[in-house]
Amino acid sequence: MTTRILIADDQEDVRIGFRLMLDSQPDMSVVAEAADGHGAVDLARRLRPDVVLADIRMPRLDGLEVTRLLAGLTRVIVVTTFDLDEYVHTALRNGACGFLLKRSGPALLVEAVRAAMAGDTLISPQVTVRLLAHLRTSTGPPGPAEPLTERELEVARLVAHGRTNAEIAAELFIGSGTVKTHVANVQRKLAVANRVGIAAWAWSSGTVTGP
């Protein structure tokens, strides 16, 4: 099944770059582009793409409002240059399925689209660590329904540090498919929906205590 994608960004060179990256994937196709927020909402409502990539600072309607308007209709991943906590919190509160910095690179963009299609949320590593680090001193959550294995703990720690599946696989010398299995097992044992939930548990439980 091909994932149909709408790109919303006011910079043409960014749209071209994203299109080239995504159209090169065998399971993805860019079906439309929008240069402003109103255009993105109109096209999304007409074309019903599977995923919308939305910049934050766009003419007429910003990406945060685009996210709010389209949440429930399609999956929205916010992709921006601006690394501000306020933007991250608002995007996630408005229903974003991901928050990426444009400097994160093509591999993470592709992974974020696949994560969104799988019902997961992917956030740029630089943002994840800062967003969750404050949980170190919060009250610890309930323990997992069943103990995590040593390998699952290793994977959880790396997720909490914002590593992608490919980076975890390289660091632990295991296959990407094995990483996906470990991540799924950790999510099940912790009763969390996505990688953000794993990271939140790791920070607040003291499983991760430093950089």
TrEMBL record:
Response regulatory domain sequence ranges: 4-117
Q: Which residues carry this modification: 4-aspartylphosphate?
A: 55
User: What keywords sit in the KW lines?
Assistant: DNA-binding, Phosphoprotein, Transcription, Transcription regulation
Domain (HTH luxR-type): residue spans on this chain: 141-206
Which PANTHER family would you find in this protein's record? TRANSCRIPTIONAL REGULATORY PROTEIN NARL-RELATED, TWO-COMPONENT RESPONSE REGULATOR
- What this protein is called in its record is Response regulator transcription factor
Q: What species is given as this protein's source? A: Streptosporangium longisporum
